[in-house]
Write a structure and sequence with these properties.
The longest helix has 23 residues. This protein is 57% helix and 0% strand. Helix 7 packs antiparallel against helix 8 and helix 7 crosses helix 9. It has a domain of 113 residues: Up-down Bundle (AhpD-like). By secondary structure, the chain is mostly helical.
Length: 175
């Protein structure tokens, strides 16, 4: 079956990634993400949060990358594959659920009059200290920036993203 012109266009980036084109942009975005690490939010939680926001925003590059990072960090397929349905899946802790709810609210900020309802914030605050909440908010904002850059310019995912997966994460061995 021959792809339609619209399907062909979807498989080519509109331009080179702006984070690579604008001097200093890649480094600034990477530093923003790195700044959240000392706050002490578990790495897996952060990866689940950025994966969920990326799913909502339809960013194939980030969904692919963060799914691979979760695999490299040793996360089981059940957790990775059910992030989009975390409310109905038994694989997440209460703290992770609070972080995922915060990620969804902060990502869908225009979808309701009170973008991040008090109950969402208060549940997150039950599980995370102020510095951790701040790190979560910054991580959510950063991934939304990446998602918007990639989705707007139709960046294409692929095996090239392996080079961006943190080398400190152990690679899962093949079965």
């Amino acid at each position: 079956m021959t792809p339609t012109p619209q399907e062909v266009n979807l498989m080519h980036a509109r331009i080179e990634n702006p984070a690579l084109t604008v001097p200093g942009a890649m480094e600034a975005l990477q530093q923003l993400s790195a700044a959240t690490k000392p706050a002490g939010v578990p790495e897996t939680t952060m990866l689940l949060v950025v994966l969920r926001a990326s799913q909502i925003n339809g960013c194939a590059v980030c969904v692919d990358m963060h799914s691979r990072e979760l695999t490299a960090a040793g996360e089981p397929d059940e957790r990775i594959l059910t992030v989009a349905a975390w409310r109905e899946a038994p694989y997440f802790t209460d703290a992770e659920r609070a972080a995922l709810a915060l990620a969804e609210a902060a990502t869908r900020i225009a979808d309701r009059p009170d973008p991040v309802p008090d109950e969402v914030w208060e549940e997150a605050a039950r599980h995370y200290e102020e510095a951790q909440l701040a790190a979560l908010v910054i991580s959510i904002a950063a991934i939304n920036a990446w998602n918007r850059i990639n989705a707007t310019t139709r960046q294409i995912t692929g095996n090239w993203i392996d080079q961006w997966i943190a080398p400190s994460q152990p690679k899962a061995e093949a079965a």
